[in-house]
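ESCALATION

Customer reports they have been waiting on this structure for their group meeting. Please prioritize. Original submission:
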Amino acid sequence: MSGAEHRRSRDGSAGDADYDVIGRTYSDFRRPDPRIAQAVSDALGDARSVLNVGAGAGNYEPTDRDVTAVEPSASMRSQRPAGLVPALDAVAESLPFPDDHFDASMTTFSVHQWTNLEAGLGEMRRVTRGPVVILTCDPDLLDRFWLAEYAPEVIETERRRYPLIPRLRTALGGTVSADLVPIPLDCSDGFNEAYYGRPEQLLIPEARAACSAWSFVPQTKVDAYTDDLARAIDSGEWDARHGDLRRQPTFEGSLVMVRGLPD
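Update from on-call: job pushed to the front of the queue and completed.
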């Protein structure tokens, strides 16, 4: 188990985003999408015992398996539905479990928050007998999304924060696959790319607050970006350039499923 010290925010968040501020309405806009949930379930295979690291409000946490959840943010732990197991207050870099304790482990939209990626993935590999499953974004593919035109600093923030796929492969070791996950047009999980065909959603402050990258951009720039986007939508400019996306059933952007198996 790692003995490193980890920074903690006011509510216990161990990463660079303060979920005491941005996590208050998270569960209103970040509801698990069943098609993405199926992709997570498929990646977990036939595992019965599953560790969910950075479990947050429980999105994509399987309900048909024996789940142990860890989440350092008090505000996120408080938003977990009654049907899910309570989450333990712990960080990825120092998991309080013995070696090879779980059939599988998972983490969704979390690795970019960790203070030490290699330590966190090393801990997940240590306590897991089978697959380690990571739902994340590939920073090399972020420019596929039109938001790069209207809010470039948001995309650049995500690019800086999300770890490159080769880094994940090296940290996990063993046999690692990385596959794009199609994002549905009516995706219920409101990360930025979920609104690829519904740009009006990103004009809602609470929707943006559920996407942590916006919290790192100065408010003056956020206001300018959203004003530009609103004008582009109202004038028809957005639809002239991207309107086909309103009818496109899925979008292959940067969402990726990384699955690591031990040698």
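Sent to customer with the following note: The chain has a mean pLDDT of 91.
Escalation resolved.
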